[in-house]
Amino acid sequence: MSSQENDDLAPTSTAGFKVGEKKNIDELAQLDATDASLNKWKESLGLSHAQERFPDDPRTVVVQALVFQSEDRAIRMDVSTPKAVEELQKTPITIKEGCEYTFKIEFVVQREMVSGLKFLQQVKRKGIPVDKMEEMCGSYGPKYESQERTFPSSKAPSGMLARGTYNVKSRFIDDDNTVYLEWAWSMEIKKEWE
Length: 194
Description:
By secondary structure, this protein is mostly beta strands. The protein has 4 helices and 10 strands, in the order αααββαββββββββ. The strands form 2 sheets. Strands 1, 2, 4, 7 and 8 form a 5-stranded antiparallel beta sheet that branches. The protein has a 5-stranded mixed beta sheet with strand order 3-10-9-5-6.
């Protein structure tokens, strides 16, 4: 068995799909330089004026936060630094049973274009998988401003048996299977918000 078959968060793959050749910003800027519409598209990606938001941070994709959003609450989970991820692992977030919610991921792309960003997440209860999410975010050029992607809504389980602690593992990757961030966290489903 390959390591990808053992990985709970392995992305699905499409038979016959091959990731294109990776090109740096300068190579992309030079492609079809005389095509006005293509140049306009490249400009919209920020390929001509890519500024680094975090020049001392070597990461191409800096994931800043995962935000839980419901009608009643927004809980911003800071994952911008290893210390922030470590703190998040220590403190579960509390979610009211039966609430409708979405997740939003906030990130910065710097230095290079990334293609096929995906957000993967698996939720387990007492070691048993109960939910898995795989959402395509798209391709992004470098941009000084934060970028975000909101995912489709879900409904938290409800009832006495559904209450308790759920362990979550999240991963942000691209088509080349480059992992930009992987982290574990937990949530408690309770009768009421705390």
